[in-house]
């Protein structure tokens, strides 16, 4: 078991799933997070939503003589959650420190040795369908699915993480269990614990489950398609969610942190260039955010802004103008320094919340296939130069995809 702050080993001899313990004797809770290298991009053709539905099921399925893991944790005063991404699935819980060992055992049992139940499956499938129906009614959600499809037409990265409603409705328990055994259980895994002391017996407990995979299951199988740069149609009559997006470097690509800093320069903080333009100078928008995510073949930088329909044109001019200023070096170096500091402090404040520290670490190590620590991430952000951010801005400006929802009838 690793000590606090220790870098995970990279040899193939390490224990599988990898265990990372981050210890703080002042904590009175333990946060446990299991990271699995499996995600929505592996959904079979015609079955978009398998991964999302599986995530729901694993914390909802009861075992003989006891309730589901989610209910079990909540009845002890803890909290629990799970999430599906394109390439990583997370399962996590925060409990009293004295419950850490039993909670870890119960989580691993729920996720790695479930008992599939047809009645629970049908109920949970309906819950997931309702979740996606709700999302489909929210233009802020829909516009992001649209922009992913435009960036990666026909490619697994471009598929909606939550699933497609019509395909979710046709999924069977056998469909999900097949993917669980063939893809989920063979994906790389890592367990992160943030608490006052190590959890006793984890290595012995993990030894009772089959060894997962040892490498990324997302080796590029398809070439990246050309992005669809077609301008969006006119916005609908009431309120327009506009998403600007572009490809950023891959997970292991050089310079990807520059896109994170760029998100701070064009984010929702009062310290950002975009805030000054949209909120202070022109009062065009109250709701906007920017962020970047990185995947095996390419990352995605996004800016999501809500404006009145008649303001979409002016918004596009502002975003293009700021990207141009950044690309052509017309922004003072002080602004880059502020954005870097903001990006680093956002990471620090997340990391000071134990369950978020566990979640961030589990996401970073991607099932144990790569090294990541909060200190490494902070150092990478501090190393970003204005030239790198200018290059990122120029790259985005030349290949920017824009979507608007709702569109005019």
Report on the structure:
By secondary structure, the protein is an alpha+beta fold. The protein folds into 2 domains: 18-206, Cytochrome Bc1 Complex, Chain A, domain 1 (2-Layer Sandwich), CATH 3.30.830.10; 240-405, Metalloenzyme, LuxS/M16 peptidase-like (Cytochrome Bc1 Complex, Chain A, domain 1, 2-Layer Sandwich). The chain contains 15 helices and 9 strands. The protein has helices at 50-58, 69-74, 100-112, 118-136, 139-151, 165-170, 173-184, 202-206, 256-265, 273-281, 312-327, 333-351, 354-365, 374-382, 386-398; strands at 18-23, 29-36, 79-84, 89-96, 189-195, 240-248, 287-294, 299-307, 401-405. Strands 1-5-2-4-3 form a 5-stranded mixed sheet, with helices on both faces. A 4-stranded antiparallel sheet has the order 7-8-6-9, sandwiched between helices. The relative contact order is 0.17. Residues 1-15 have low confidence and may be disordered.
